[in-house]
Amino acid sequence: MTVCDVLRNTATRVPGRTAVIFRDRHLTYAQLSGAVHRLAGGLSTLGIGHGDRVALMAPNCDAFAICYHGIMRAGASVVPINPMFKAPEIAFILKDSEAKAALVHAALAPTLREAADLAAVEPALLSIGGEVEDALAMEAILDVDHEAFDPPAVAPGDIAAVLYTSGTTGRPKGAMLSHDNLVFDARASVDHFGFSPDDRILVVLPMFHAFAATVGLVIPACIGASIVALERFTPQGVFDAISDHAVTIFPGVPTMFAALLKAADALQWDFASLRACVSGGAPMPPALMEQFEAKFGVPVCEGDGPTECSPITSVNVLHKPRKPGTVGLPLPGVEVRAVDDHDEPVPCGEIGELVVRGRNVMVGYLNQPEATAEALRGGWFHTGDLGTVDEDGYVAILDRKKDMIIVGGLNVYPREVEDVLYEHPAIQAAAVIGVLDPLRGERVKAVIVRRPGHELSESDVLAHCRGRLANYKLPKLIEFAESLPLSPTGKVLRRELRDPHG
């Protein structure tokens, strides 16, 4: 089936069920599917059809859901763009994707126009949430019936979305995800985790990101669950949304859970409706998970998956033992193994690069056949993550392969050191990187954010780490900072710590 099929089927099956809550607006599945049809019809009148690519740049809102599904129903592929990107970053995506049109929030239209000029492209511009000069307002399209519009046939193998990776090394790459990739991953996640049609999922993670798109847009469309969309993350906003709308599932990243924990004593909150939190996007320190669960009485299920895998590959689940420090068991129909530098499987429990095989794995990278062949060699997607698979099949991620630190020929995994640092009550955040050393190859450096109101010295940090870490793993350099550079999904941008000037 396609993403288009599952939304149409759900709208037919449960037309009156709430699909999206945003501010004071509620969209039923019938209303959502109707708006999607009208938008697709409007796009078709602009010449958008099968095989085209359409950019989408907006904050979380009900209109994002309409646009995401509407682009697909028109037969095109959606190309989400981070609203925080600057013009040169957007220009690369517009040019590389050959976007024929762009749906953009009115407040972001000037930046997108600047990007189009830089890229020397002229996509048709449609504005969301306000009028923009020389752009067609999405609201005007939705006012037109388009009853005669007959959506083009879309096959499961057609490209539904092109999601650009963060580009930690070189230019971003556009991962091409088919309808089958997304629907398979969503349905497998439903079966594995136990998502229910009665769930209300809080979507404060940015919808342009693979994690939020699957959990907040595709999974609900498959089963008829509801989402509560928030434009931006604030602890007060999350607390209010959970209690006001009886949210049952809260997907987040570790920095969000840390912020909620920090704010809990100062703000009112009621998590009576919440049955589970799902953590992804970045490794969650076990100490943070333990503190969060103790404070709020809600289990946190950590999972993982790269954009190229639609993106969920594994997750801890409520009906089986959860193993803190792991990202759980692979989804049904998804294989995960650890391999050595020759792509041979390593023994159970030993460290290797994690590779993935399954119907959730991308078709390839747009316009990059060599990078595609390298990433998918041997029929397995190579994640670049170092980790283990234990005797029970649970997957643990230690670090990115490129982030591993080699001290005198011995491997140091930054996460191992970070987890120890997070156990100190005066440390709010920490990141570990390697710096060049003429004698030992690299030295371990820790960048630490102190918890407000706490004193902490270098000697305090070393005293805490001794006895918990081998001497070669101890931080030889310690820097205190006001904050750590983070991606929109809460990942520490280690490259900025290594070279703050870019």
What does this structure look like?
This protein has 15 helices and 26 strands. Among the domains are: 150 residues, 3-Layer(aba) Sandwich (Rossmann fold); 95 residues, GMP Synthetase, Chain A, domain 3, CATH 3.30.300.30. α10 packs across α11. The model has no long low-confidence stretch (mean pLDDT 94). The longest helix has 17 residues. It has a five-stranded parallel β-sheet with strand order 4-3-5-6-7, sandwiched between helices. The protein has a five-stranded mixed β-sheet with strand order 12-13-14-15-16. A hairpin with a 2-residue loop joins β22 and β23. It is globular. It has 502 residues and is of the alpha/beta class. The two termini are 44 Å apart.
The CATH architecture of the domain at 28-177 is 3-Layer(aba) Sandwich
> What Rg do the Cα atoms give?
23 Å
Total E-strand runs: 26
- DSSP summary: helix tally: 15
**Coarse morphology:** globular
Mean pLDDT: 94
Structural class, judged by helices and strands?
Answer: alpha/beta
Biggest sheet strand order reads 4-3-5-6-7
CATH topology of the domain at 28-177: Rossmann fold
- Biggest beta sheet summary: 5 strands, parallel
Strand content: 15-25%
Tell me the distance between the termini.
44 Å
Overall helicity: 25-40%
Low-pLDDT segments, ≥5 res: none
Q: In oligomeric terms, what are we looking at?
A: single chain
Look at the structure and give the CATH class of the domain at 28-177. Alpha Beta
